[in-house]
Amino acid sequence: MIALDDFRTILLTAVAATAVVAAIACITLRLARHKSMLLQLLIVVAATVASIAAATVAIAAEMYISNHDLVVLCWVIGVGAVVSLGVAALIGVGITRTSARLRSTARAIGEGQIVLPEDHDGLEFAALARELAETSQRLARSRQEVATLDESRRRLVAWISHDLRTPLAALRAMAESLEDGVAEEPARYHRQIRVQAETLASMVDDLFELSKIQSGTLSLNMEPVSLFDLVSDAVADLHPVAASRSITLKESRTGNLTLFGDARELSRVIDNLLMNAIQHSPANSEILISARETGNEHVALSVVDAGGGIPEEDLGKIFDAGWRGTPSRTPALAFEMSAGAGLGLAIVAGIVEAHAGGVSVRNVPGGCQFDVTLPRFGASAA
């Protein structure tokens, strides 16, 4: 059994030798903090081996073992140190290679490439590779969304420029005619100027509404609303427009249609859907607007027109801001309704989403059907 004094001597000697080596290792690591991981790993392993060797040799010297035994001990420690450093070097080379591959992957992601997860030694490196692969896919989706939004913005600006130019040119021509005194029916020109001004005001109102929706600043005044009343009011308001084209508006309502929402914004949804249907329906056709409850939690609204349907490849674009199925154009009903610049359905989608609802479109025989689903108790604000 080791005597207490001997144990104390061994402990103090080991602590002193290890502390000296540890201090040197910390200083070396501090100086090499910007160097490669391989060098830092070798320093750590060398410091570990050196601390064990220093403590062992110092204690052996204190124990007064023979010179032969001390030399043998030093050789054993030396061989162990060399082998340890060799293994550490191999591990460090593997880490360096993995680091280089991950750096290459990160560079590829920065260049916009989609990378696939690679197998790496080590749980942490494998997890990092998977995360980089998922990040590249998320970035690719984000870039696609940005490209789509940018294309939508350019298309919207082009169409708005076109649609604004038409009523402005008409206003200028009529104003010049009145100014020169060559207008044969001044009263008719005054009416047309008022209608064109209302058209421009409606387009500006749509742009303002869309900007609030896209910026997330649309504020909803939530209160109990009867979808029955909203549909009836919309049909009554748009009946003259539909009648001017020999289009019949037919209503269908069933069940409890009370929900919690913003009456003004929901009226805009119904008006925009009906106006869209009127614009694209032929004369002597019928538009059916139906409202119904779908269980205790939701109510549904459907608008079915006879406009011939929408190409299947365009169904996913129908609610994009500024999108219309034909190149930039001004609707034939320019004097009766707002051109809208292709914003009506985008506004519909934004308002419905603000109410925590959903909107979709599908083709039906002879036309298409827009379906809106609204929760009875939607979001309190958007």
Strand order of the largest sheet: 2-4-5-7-6
Strand content: 5-15%
Helix content: 55-70%
Oligomer: single chain
Secondary structure category = alpha+beta
Round the mean pLDDT to the nearest integer and report it.
80
Shape: elongated
Number of helices: 8
Q: What are the segments in which pLDDT stays under 50 over at least 5 consecutive residues?
A: 327-341
Description of the structure:
This protein is 61% helix and 12% strand. The protein has 8 helices and 7 strands. It has helices spanning 4-31, 37-62, 67-110, 123-180, 186-215, 227-244, 263-280, 344-354, and strands at residues 223-226, 248-254, 258-261, 286-294, 298-304, 358-364, 367-375. It has a 5-stranded mixed beta sheet. Strands 1-3 form a two-stranded antiparallel sheet. Helix 4 packs antiparallel against helix 5 (186-215) and helix 7 packs antiparallel against helix 8 (344-354).
